[in-house]
Structures are given as structure tokens and as C-alpha cells.
Design goal:
Number of domains of chain A: 2
Largest sheet of chain A: 2 strands, antiparallel
Order of helices and strands of chain A: HHEEHHHHHHHHHHH
Number of domains of chain B: 1
Oligomer: heterodimer
CATH architecture of chain B: Orthogonal Bundle
Helix content of chain A: over 70%
Largest sheet of chain B: none
CATH topology of chain B: MetI-like fold
CATH class of chain B: Mainly Alpha
Structural class of chain A: mainly alpha
CATH class of the largest domain in chain A: Mainly Alpha
Shape of chain B: globular
Number of strands of chain B: 0
Radius of gyration of chain B: 23 Å
Strand content of chain B: under 5%
Order of helices and strands of chain B: HHHHHHHHHHHHHHH
Number of helices of chain B: 15
CATH architecture of the largest domain in chain A: Orthogonal Bundle
Number of strands of chain A: 2
Largest interface: A-B, 101 and 89 residues
Number of helices of chain A: 13
CATH topology of the largest domain in chain A: MetI-like fold
Radius of gyration of chain A: 25 Å
Amino acid sequence: MSTNSISRALDNRKFLVFALLAPVLAFFIVFNTIPTLWLLGLSFHKFSLISGTPPEFFGIRNFQDIFFNKNNVWGDLRRTFLFVVVGVSIQTVLGVLLGFLFWGSKDMPGRRVALTLLFTPMVLTPIATGTFFRFIYDPTFGALNFLLSGLFGTGVIDFLGNPSIAYWAVLAVDCWMWTPFMTLMTLAALGSVPKAELEAAEIDRLSWPQRVSMVIWHHGKFILMLGILLRTIDAFKTLDLIIPMTKGGPGQTTRLVAVELNKQGFESFHMGWSSAVSVLLLLISIAMTSIFIYILNRRRKAG
Amino acid sequence: MPQRLRTTLYYAALWLVSLIFFAPVAWIILSSFKTRNDILATPPKLIFSPTFENYVDLFTRSTFMLQLVNSVFLSLAAVVLAVFVSFLAAFCFSRFKPKGTDFLMFLLLSIRMLPGPAVIMPVYLMYVAFGWKDNHIGLIFFYAMFSIPFSVWILKGFLDGVSTRFDETGRVNGGSWVHVIFRVVLPQVKPGLIAAFIFNLIFVWNEFLFNFIIGGVSTQNIPYALAVGAYADGGLNWTFIATLTSIYIVPPVLFIYFFQKYLLVGMTFGTVRGEV
């Protein structure tokens, strides 16, 4: 076909729509739809890659097992939700505070460098972050222990080895990584408040709490909500931060749902079971996506 | 308090906050210039005589070059491919709104919301069955698929902002659709293309799990190397990890410095616009 006949064929609207969508659809059917159907099918089977036996139909046994808390699935989910709720709350509060702090800094010398430094934790390779925090947390050589005992006279703390601390130590790293994201979102939310209304509020001598509740909140709430939701979804997936730090240990204390799924699937090769857990996670993530889109649409309507 | 002093204090506080957040990273970079004895010194040393030996050592390791080349090649190839096909699809969604657009956009997004192991498990089985494992093309295609949702969302947002008058004018004046799409509309969504490009690039650059599961020895990138402890010769080799990390964070940090105005768009799937 010459280029001419291609462009003539593209004049047919139906063909054009199809031609534009085809590559993405092809990608999706091959790398997403087929695998997802495969996953759905497997979740009704007992299938281990090591045993060498073909998948054996299992009915809903896998889902029954999940329901009856085999392998402490609900424990993983509980830890994950706690991780999400506590982590995202801390990040939101800190991030919003920092966002307000950075609000008036438009003329600061070197602002761009300062913001780059602030945002660096977000773009660090999580694997590298996790690995290196293991070093910082190290009871013998770690910088943090040295700092803490120097400042507060605490003894040597084994942050990642102590079952009652490890979870919070991991959570702290997550907060360090993602508080800047909430700051970014807060700056965006504050930027969306019209200058005129702020000036009006200043002339009317509204107190700061009033300004926040009456002017800023009204304009900024959607962006902040999107930020919280994006963080929630992301925190729910936390995996590569934890693998180098604790691999889910000590005991099960930092075993989040993605970490355990990774282990069941790719270390123990329990494919049937892992598929069933994945289906459960798929449902959760579809629910979260729906909420995300709902908020997005409400924002669009609100204008 | 005079205004000037107040402003200075305020700026000093902001810088302090930024530096506190950067401190762990600074510690990594500092450690990369230490000798093995200095890095494991107790108490940790702030003042030491810097050495470049670690960097020399790292660059002379053959595996490092392979991993670095893989990192660059995989992320560039996958993201270029993804942004290109996403642009076409986003154009279609934005202009023709075919039936099921909303549903497709939803589907696209939901894949990014799923924990990694759940995404990769069936793909892994498929790759094993077809013998696509440990293959650059296989990995690039998968990364491209994973970068598409982000790119489509970002680009659709930008395309919606370009008036359809441009298309109409182009068409009325006898331009083909190819001309309209690539010559008329494409230049106007450059910021969207850049944002989609940069943020998918950073994602693939930092990605470890997919590389680990459906890649293999010949496709390994640097996060893979870090995760499997490729530089562990009896206990973790901290000097190598510090050096490796210090080199590896340079591109993302440069990106967020030079493309700071795209940061917001990139990190929110294009759902939030504006500058910080």
C-alpha cells in the first residue's frame, strides 16, 4: 500500500478509530487480558510449579481457604491496612504542614534546588533505599543508632531485628519517602486557590483557621483528596521497600500482603493459591480505582 | 522583628527541612567515597579522606556495565514505545470517544493499582510457557504495557485541552489525518509527552520485581543487582551498594531538577495540573 492509499483508508472514520486504538488494545489483550483470565482460571485450581503435576481443579477451595485464614492472609491484610492508614495519615499531616510552610517561598533563592532535595526520596530506587536503610538502621555500624544514643542516650536499638520495632521502622522509611509527595500535592492544592479570594480574606481579616476552612479548603480539597487516594493505592502495593530491609520478618511482623504474595508465588511457587489471593487483591484495587474515578468526576462537575 | 530577618529565618527553615529529607541520600553519597574500613567505622565517620577507588572498581566490573546498559536500554525502549502508542490511543479517546472509552480508561488505570506480584504472576506463567523469559524484547513489551496506562491518562488530559478547531482547520485545508495528528496536534501536547516520558522512565528505571521475575541473567538491571545482592561477597558489600546507588540516582534527580514543572502532572496521572 502506498502512503496515499493509507491516508485514504484513514479517512474512513471507523478504520481510523480502529487503527489508532489497535496498538494499545493489542498490548492489553496480550499482556493483560489473557493473563488476567489465566489468573482467574488458575484461582480455581491447585497448582504448584515445583510438583510437576498439571493443575488440578479445586473448585472454590482456594477461596474457602482464604476465608478461613489459611497462611494468615487476614493478618497480612490487617498489617497492610494498618500500614496504609497510619502511613498515609502521617504523610498527609506532615505533608500538608510542610506544604503550608513552603507556600510563601516563591522568591526563595535556590528554591528549585531545595525542592529537588526535598523531592529526591520519591524518585530513589526503592530497592536501593531499602538496602541502604538497612545499613543506617544497623545496630553496630548504623548512623541512626549513633545519632540517637548521642542525642538521647538511648542504648543500641536493633531497629529491623526487634519484632516490636521493625514494623514502625519500615513505616518510618515509607513516610520519609512519601511525605514530600503530600507536600507536592498540598502545594498544588494551595496553588489552585484564586489569589483574589485570598486577598479578599486578608482584607476581611479572617483568622487563619477561618481562611483555611472557608477559602482554601473549598478550592484545595479535591487535589488533596486525590493525593491521599494515590498514596493509599501506592502504600497498599508496598513491596520493594520491604524486601531488602526485612523480607517480611522478623517473624511475620512486616509481612504485608504484597510481600507474602511475592513469596508464595515466586519462592514457593504455589500458583493456584497465589492466584486466588491475587483475585482478592484485584477486587480491592478495582474498588479503589472506582473511588478514585468517582472523586475525579465529582471534581470535574464542580468545575 | 524586622521583615528581612524574618524572611531570612523563614528561608533558612525551608532549607533545613529540605536538607533533613535529603540527609539519608547525602549519607549514601558520602559513603560511596569511603574506604571499606571507613564505612564500617564505629562511631560513623563524618570526616575522612575521600577515595574514588569505589567508582573505579565499579566501572571495571563487567557485570556492572551490562546492568547499566540494560537499565538504560530497557527503560528507553519501553517508554518510547509506550508513549508513542499511548499518544495514538489518547488522541482517539479524546477526539472520537468510541464506545466504552470510560470503561477502557478505567481498565487501564486499574492495572496500575494492583500490587506487582499479582500483575506479574500470570504473565510469568505465560512467559515461561512461551519461552519468552530472559528476553529483552519480552521485557520491553511488558514494561511498555505497564507504562501505557500512565501515558494514556496524562496525554488524554492534555489532548482534551487542545481545541478540536485545530483538527478541523487542518482537515478542511486538505491535510491528511496523519498530518493533523503528528504535525498539528502533537506539537501542542509536548508538555504531556515530556511528563509521560519522564515519569514512566523513572518508573522503569527503578523497577525491580518485573525484571527479577520475567527477566533473567541477560536482562538484569541495577535494581535487580541490588536486590539479589550481586555485590555481596560475604555479607553485603556496603561500599559497592553506596557507589552503585549514588550513580544510579543521578538521572532521576536531574530529571526532577530540570523538569520540575512536570512533576505534578507526572505523579498524578495527569489528573492534577499546575506548577509547584
